[in-house]
Amino acid sequence: MPTLPDTLCHLNGRTLPLRDAQVSVLDRGFLFGDGVYEAVPVYGRRLFRFDDHMTRLERSLSKLRIPNPHDRAGWLTLLRELVDAHPADDQMLYLQVTRGVAPREHTMVQGLAPTVFAMTNAMRPPSAEQRHHGVACVTARDFRWERGDIKSTSLLGNVLARQVAADHGAAETILLRDGWITEGSSSNVWVVHEGALLGPPRSEHLLEGVRMALMAELCEECGIAHNLRPLSEDDLRTADEVLLTSAGREVLPVTRIDGELVGHGALRGRPGPVYARLYEAYQRAKLDQCT
Ligand code: PMP
Measured in whole angstroms, how far is the alpha carbon of residue 248 from the centre of its chain? Predict the structure, then answer.
């Protein structure tokens, strides 16, 4: 059994040890996965792109008709309290809001007090080895539901997808819906063709990562052409570079897919130049985009 972290958490207005936090078995998050979440990176004890995460939280909540229990200032106060109490300078904040506690019934019960939970952990960034050599991915059919745009705690499809990678000793599973790239089990997927960074367009089939807008900004800054357009399995397999982005992975190079090396010529199977520039730009953004 893994040992539980010995840290504080927030539950419904109270700060208490994570080990002691308890919710009702009738919480709709427990019974239905009826809730949403965010994972916010913290660098030097400050929250990275906080407003983007709040915008997405507000969007997820409103799509599920769950009232937002806090305004942005309220969220910031609550989250900063956890950050300040944690020993690490770089952390990953997790927050979740469920519809609340009610007798079990599928219909969205009105008038419930949402359950609010937040915790933070020391950041576990990708290893130097992963940055230097890139990571391996596998592909799988995207068998999840069609509302990947909602950052829902109903993650069973993503759990099943990630386990495909784990079973193959790979870092991530890249999902293909009808032959088109959607995303990874917990990341967005990018390919590089002829020097341009390409990602699949926003749709209900994938989560709009906070790093989607960030990648566009970093590409502008670095003079890298970029575009969102439908990307086929062939685009993936013939790419010069393949990248993953997420709060925890920042931007990470993929150098092997389904056992085949990514890229061409001397860079085959090695992280490429677009990755290197975006990684550098990302590190700069961390310094001046924190709240
Ligand atoms: N897609 C999925 C399914 C994810 O779980 C994540 C990570 N939250 C992402 C994309 C990337 O989003 P972000 O850049 O906001 O971490």
Answer: 7
